[in-house]
Every structure is written in structure tokens, then in C-alpha cells.
Amino acid sequence: MKSVNQLLASAHNLPAVETVEAVPVSAETTAVVNALFRKLRGIFPAWRQAWPSTEALNAAKEEWIQGFAAQGIRSLEQIEFGIQNCRKAQKPFAPSVGEFIAMCRPGPECLGMPSAMEAWIEVLMGTYSHEGVHLAARATGLFDLRGARPDDKGLRQRFDRHYAVILLRAQAGRPMEAVIQIDQERRKTELQRADEHADRQVQARMSQQGIPADGAQARELLMATLGKRSIS
User: Fold this and answer.
1) In this structure, is the dihedral angle defined by the CA atoms of residues 82, 83, 88 and 92, taken in order, positive or negative?
2) Consecutive sets of 10 residues in the chain, 232 residues long: mean pLDDT of each?
3) Residue 17: what pLDDT?
4) pLDDT score recorded for residue 198
């Protein structure tokens, strides 16, 4: 039989799950979760307070799989990080699924990123110690941040929200740049959307009427329609 360390080392990352309602539980995932709970029972001597019976233990495993899926805990590195933090806690009682998920997420300092307060000061100064800070500043709005006051609560809350999302993506090993793309789409004004819609309608009418989109070709067509010779 494989040891706990062998199971965690040999298993692949947990499957990415988009919805919590239907989490596919493979034999590999089951092995990883069983190994995790064996480790937790070894770390926390009073684990029976949380899981007093086999039924309670099995139900907890199902709940934790659901929680991992919902909160983006998909890699063995994240789980191992959580186990390390459990050892450091030096507590007799086992954590809840929410507490363990929090332990699986490294703080910004572990990722080489500044704290939220330090990041806020950086964006006000226009200096960025990490790309994640720059991305959060762009998502917040570089123009708005220019000349902003440190006590601007609304802008600070907006920046903190973007920085928190970027930090979560970094903790999950996901690309941080996607935050900018999503936010730029959301920040389009109704006028911009209306202009884009009008442009698409004009292009569609031109296509239906056989009018070339290229300016030079459209001029040639107009000259021919008027019965004039095109001028090169």
C-alpha cells in the first residue's frame, strides 16, 4: 500500500470544476482526500471532536471535495501548503473545511507580493514592486489613481477589490492578466457599446448593398456608378 506522501506526490492535480453541484470524484481524487484526512488525524489529536464516526468522516470528505471545487483548491501544492500550516498551528482540534482552505492559500509575502496596504502606497507613488500591483492599478484606472489622495476611501476600496482578486488568482496559479480583460469589458460605457453596435450595423448594411469596406474601393465604385472614369 502506498504511503500518504507517495499518494500526494504521485497523484495529478485535482480536476478543475466549474460548478459545485456535480463534482466528478475520480479514484485518484478519492485517494488524495483519504491521504489528506489521514494526515490531518495524525496532526490533530482531538480530531474525533469533528469526525466522531465513520459516517461523519465520510460526510466530511464529501463536503471538503465540494469546498475545494467551489474555492479553487485544485492543486496538490495548495493542499500540501495547507498541511504545513496545520502543523504550524499546533492545535489539538481539526480545522473546518473553510479554515483549511484559508490555510491552503499563501499570503502575498509568500508570492513575493506586497500587502494590500503596501500595494496601495505603491500605486499612489506610481511604483510597482510586483506585476500584480500594476495589474490591479490598471484595473482600478491609472488615470483615477494619478493625484489620488491616500484617504480616498472609494478608490481604495476599488483597488483593494481588484488586488484581492489578483491575489486569489496568483494563489490558485491562474493567469492574473485575465482580471484586466474582464474589467475592461465591464467598464465600457453604454455610449461605447452603442457606438460599437452602430458601427456593426453600418458594416452589415454596406455588406448587404455590396459597398466595399475599403475606402479606395468604395471610391472606385462610386465613380463607376456616376459614370466617371476613376482617377489613379
Assistant:
1) positive
2) 47 45 72 95 96 96 93 88 94 96 89 92 93 92 91 94 88 70 54 63 65 62 58 48
3) 40
4) 64
- Say yes or no: 88 and 162 in one domain: no
The pLDDT assigned to 109 comes to 85
* Per-residue pLDDT at 177: 73
- 10, part of any domain: yes
Helices (H), the chain: 4-10, 27-43, 54-71, 76-89, 97-104, 116-125, 131-140, 142-145, 153-171, 178-186, 190-208, 215-225
pLDDT of residue 57: 96
Q: Do 221 and 228 touch, CB atoms closer than 8 A?
A: no
> Does residue 230 lie within any of the structural domains?
no
Residues 93 and 33 in one domain: yes
- Do 33 and 52 share a domain, yes or no? yes
Residues 97 and 152 in one domain: no
Q: Contact, 55 vs 24, CB < 8 A? A: no
- pLDDT for residue 4: 44
Q: How far apart are the first and last CA of the chain?
A: 83
In terms of domains, do 178 and 208 share one? no
For cell 502543523, the residue is: 87
Contact call for residues 165 and 179 (beta carbons, < 8 A)? yes
69 and 17 in contact (C-beta within 8 Å)? yes
Q: How many domains does the chain have?
A: 3
What is the extent of the structural domain holding 159?
111-186
- Kindly state whether residues 74 and 34 are assigned to the same domain: yes
